Amino acid sequence: MSSSRRIWPSLVVLLAVTTLSLATSALPAPFAQPEYPAVRQGMALQFPRDHGAHPAFRTEWWYVTGWVRDAAGRERGIQITFFRNRPGVAESNPSAFAAKQLMFAHAAIADPQHGRLRHDQRAARTGFGLADSAEQRTDMHIGDWSLRGVASGYVANIPANGFAMELTFRATDPVLLQGEGGYSRKGPEAEQASFYYSRPHLAVSGTLEIDGAQQAVTGEAWLDHEWSSEYLAPEAEGWDWTGLNLQDGGALMVFRIRDKQGGVLWAGGTLRGADGSARVFAADEIRFTPLRSWRSPRTQATYPVAMRIDAGPITFELEPLMDDQELDSRASVGTVYWEGAVRATAGERVVGRGYLELTGYWQPLKL
After folding, report:
1. Statement: residue 25 has pLDDT above 90
2. Which domains does the chain have, with CATH numbers?
3. Residue 337 in contact with residue 365, Cβ under 8 Å?
4. Is the pLDDT of residue 22 over 60?
5. Contact 362, 333 (CB under 8 A)
6. What is the distance between the alpha carbons of residues 96 and 93, in angstroms, rounded to a whole number?
7. Whole-prediction pTM value?
């Protein structure tokens, strides 16, 4: 839910850093992990400062997803995610080579005519011009991949393997604070939380280049920015998350964190109405009901790619742009999950478009 995701689209970072933590758990005191700042209820987010990086916290991500359309009306899903991580290893080491901050990035295009995700990724330590994430403003890069804030919104430049994205995301809505003023609970304990805000209804324009052919596209996107120092609760198996730009001008984010017995450990969400009003949902107001599953022919993982979502009085169904939107990152960080473009429908009517993230279905998360 990187996130982590998504709600935690930082999934890939968490798994990588867990490995680092285990490898360094026996280091002497000067190399022990530091005390990370806690996410506390009542701390007000401040902008533009909080658009930038928060390097004292363990994990952070900027997660952009959206739907775009070319001149022929062909629809595709797009996803760009930058992660920052403070591993807390050897922070007293004066060497410029010490990995005090790590950066990761993922990019993907969902194209039904291709039948599966086009996907690429990057990873680097900060410094030496290889990678960085600025404080006070949105500005991060890994090599020639970048996501930067501008006066009108954001600009992304992603020259990936087999595809490229040069996109502008123009902000049309104010910041949407998730949870209680940006304090978003992720579990039964108060410290199991993140600072979290979204930018729904970003107007997209720019170009996609696929196999050397450029196409102008327009569409609508969603940005999540989230940071935390906590891992998921140890009893968590995975999460389901969706962020939707609604057709009436509203925006909806809902999630659930599943436990290892198949139940729900925690859930939540926020609805911004077309009139600008906001409603925060309690955990018992959220239900995800699988309607149809898809089994990956590569990993044999089975994902509930079609869902009915109940959020308070709202009910709708999610249907994927295509079934095979599995993201396989075993070659880099050892995990597999499903992250894809979905339509929200009520009866025969499309009421929104967005993304759905499904984790813990290939294997339970071991954070």
Report:
1. no
2. 3-32+42-358 (2.40.370.10)
3. no
4. no
5. no
6. 8
7. 0.89
